Structure formats: C-alpha cells, structure tokens
Amino acid sequence: MDTAYSVIGLGKLGASMAAAIAKRGFNVIGVDVSERAVKRLNDGHAPVQETDLEDIIAANRMRLRATMSHREAIFESDTTFVIVPTPSDEQGAFSLQYASWAFREIGKALQEKNRYHNVVLTSTVLPGSTRFGLLPILERESRKRAGADFGLCYSPEFIALGSVIRDFLNPDFCLIGEYDERCGGALQKSYAQIMENHAPCKRMSIENAELTKISVNTYVTTKITFANMLSELCEKIPGGDIDVVTDALGSDSRIGIKYLKGGLGYGGPCFPRDNVALGYMARTLHCGADIAEATDGFNRRLPKRFIDRLLAILTPGMTAAVLGLAYKPYSHVIEESQGVALALALAKHGVRVLAYDPLAQETAETELGGKVMVMNSMKSCLSQADLVLIATPDPEFRGLAADDFITKGGPVTVVDFWRILDPSTMQHGLVRYVPVGRSSEEDENKQRLSRLWESAETIGPA
C-alpha cells in the first residue's frame, strides 16, 4: 500500500473520509484552515461529531495526521480529495468560493511538485463547475496542464450523517467523473483498495458525474414526497394505512421499498438544497425541472399543512411538546429540520412549546432563540403537555405508552408522524392517539366515499 492520500477539509465528511482511509491501512494527511480541527486530529481526537469517528481516529494515529499547509499535504501524498463546503447562494446554485480557494492552494503546491498528482473533487457541485470553474484555477496556479502533469476527477460521496464512515466504505457504487482515462483508472484502483464491499465503479465524463450526484438526491426526495402524498390519501379512506400501501408498492422491483416511508418530510443539509439547485440549473439551461420544484414545494409546505389541521385544538396558553429536533434520528444536525419548523409554527400561534431531542439540544437552543423551551429530558418535556408531536422516529420515543403522556392528569393529543408507537399501549380515555398516515375517522371516511360513488350504478364514476 504505497499510495498516500490527503483530504482537504476536515468537516463531518472530510474528517470521516480521512479516518476511513486510514482505517484501511493508508497514510492520510488532512488539511483544514481551522487550527482547532488540525490540533484535535493530531491529538488523536475527532474534530467533529460523527458516529465511530473518535474511536477510528484514536486507533489509526500512526497513519493519520493533519496540517494547515496545502503544500505539505500535496508533497506528502499522491491523491488529494477536496471536500470543502459548497453553500447555496441566493439563487439556489452551489457557491465555489471555498473550493476555488482550495484549488488555488493546491495549484501553487503542484507548481513545485515534479510527480503526477491526482486531484479529486468530492464536494457537491453543479454540472460544469469542475471543468470550467475550478480546472482553470489549477492550471493557472500550477502552470501545468491537466492530463499531462496532474489528474482531475469529480467523485462525490453518497453518505448520510450519522453513518458517514460506514456509507463511505460500503457504497452502492463509486461515481467517477474523469478528465481522462489515466486519472479515472488511478482513482478506480484506489477505490478497489479502500472500499470494503468491492462496489462497482461508474466512470463517465465529469459533467455526467456532476449531474448524476445531484440527481440521486432529487430522485430520493421525490420518492419520499410521493409516500407523503399517499399518506394523506390513506387518512381519508376507510382502513387506510400508508405502511400497508408502501410495503406493497416497495415489493415491485421497479419501485423498491427504500425511502418509501410516509412521514413528516425530509430535511438536513443536502436533500432540500439539491432540489433547489437542480431547479436553478434547469432554468439556466432553459429546461424544465417541474418534478424537482414540486417536490421541494410540497416538502416545505408540510409543517404548515399539519399545523392547519391542528388549528381546531390549538388555544393560546396551551402547552405542546415536540419530540425530535434533529432532521433525523442519531444526529445533532437541525438544518432544515421539520421538527424545528413545527415548533416555531406552534409558537407563532401563541402555544407554549417545549421540545426535546436526544442529541440536538444545544444546537436547537441556538436556532430556536428562546421561542421554544428545549428540555433536558423527555419526561420533563411531556410532563406539562396538552399536545405531543413525535417529529422523528428516534428509538428513545418508541417505548412510550399512554401513561407517559397523562402525568398532568388532563386529556392529551398525541400526533405520531412516523407511527412508531404501539396503538395497543395508547388506549386510554385521556389520550387521543393520531397516527399520521392511517385512517382515524372511519365513519366520516366511509360516508365520504359513499357520497362519491352513490350514483355509480346509474351514471358511472365521475
């Protein structure tokens, strides 16, 4: 294993990638502009919070270190992964400001290096960004030419926060956008040694790879949103149950069960912005992206739609509890969190809102800005609630039963967006249990369909 790697950017993805590659037996040098992140890594600690990251870094200290010098990293490695932030701008596109700076520094180092070096952009970007936005910077600063003197690939990760290391080492496939055969072949060889599951490589042009990356997320969110659409329909038909419907749908090999789960919608740092970015790209190229834009719109309207359905029971001064503030379980990230959106919407209606999350308490307190009281325990969060909204399917919430909700002695409405509670444990005279995506108004639903079809015998369905 002679190949050495460098990773530019030691955030959640970069630090996890560096640790994962070191775990596989390679020497890795990380680069970051944060002195704290560099020191943490060199001291054998994780610079960010991510599952198993601390332990893997500690176990691989002999192969893993960090620096603030791009030159040092380039000279001591053969392949560089660049995984810096590409934040959304006001139009919805991905900004290259951090990537451009990193590529300038890499280019300066390459000017002094005599050996061939492979540069791999991993950050999410839009089609054309790598070749027409970043490659000119590398060639200008290095005074060298891509292909002849260095390689350039676009190869993003397909990971989820909370399982970054596992996902990186065990992908469904490795996506390689290559400037030429040489750099793409070298990266494929690296992946064959790094990945644990021998995932296939899909090699293509840089632009096709850029489009593929953003298309994966937008397709997944379309699938999520389709299930959420069906969820509302299930509530309006007798015996409707979204889990029964999606289980059958997912059995069709053309559809598949993954991400086909009716719930509260998606959030996080990637899914929402990728739909917006694809819409921006389509408009710029005078194409249509109606599906991506409709998916984004539907998802953003979900919290308001649910609040509107609760208006009949919302009264000023009542107390609501929101369980789940991270955008998903096992995460402290609250970016684009549906739970946070629900909590803020309830507060705007004059409701006193308490909230709890197993991991996201500190970050949520800052985001909610005193408008919502973030509690230290689930018990204290539920102790005063007239209304409870279970916003994430966190394992800590799954064991709740009716007695956990009636500690104050009054009636409580429990809205279970993910249907994680056992209905048999929720049967109590003071508890109204509302599993979103299931029919709970059977008589009304029967009457609604009866009226729709009552004249079918004579005139047929409308």
List the helices and strands and how they pair.
Elements: E1 5-8, H1 12-23, E2 28-31, H2 35-42, H3 53-59, E3 64-67, H4 70-75, E4 79-82, H5 97-112, E5 117-121, H6 129-142, E6 150-154, H7 164-169, E7 174-178, H8 181-194, E8 201-205, H9 206-235, H10 242-250, H11 271-284, H12 290-310, E9 319-323, H13 338-348, E10 352-356, H14 361-368, E11 373-374, H15 378-382, E12 387-390, H16 395-398, H17 402-405, E13 412-416, E14 431-435, H18 442-453, H19 456-459
Parallel strand pairs: 1-2, 1-4, 2-3, 4-5, 5-6, 7-8, 9-10, 9-12, 10-11, 12-13, 13-14
Antiparallel strand pairs: 6-7
Helix pairs in contact: 1-3, 5-6, 9-11, 9-12, 11-12, 12-13
Quick overview:
This protein is α/β, with parallel strands linked by helices and 462 residues long. It is built from 19 helices and 14 strands.
What does it look like?
- The protein is elongated and about 75 Å long.
- The chain has 462 residues and is an alpha/beta fold.
- Strand 5, helix 6 (129-142) and strand 6 (150-154) form a beta-alpha-beta unit.
- The relative contact order is 0.08.
- Helix 1 packs across helix 3.
- The model has no long low-confidence stretch (mean pLDDT 94).
- It is built from 19 helices and 14 strands.
- The strands form two sheets. An eight-stranded mixed sheet has the order 3-2-1-4-5-6-7-8, sandwiched between helices. It has a six-stranded parallel sheet with strand order 11-10-9-12-13-14.
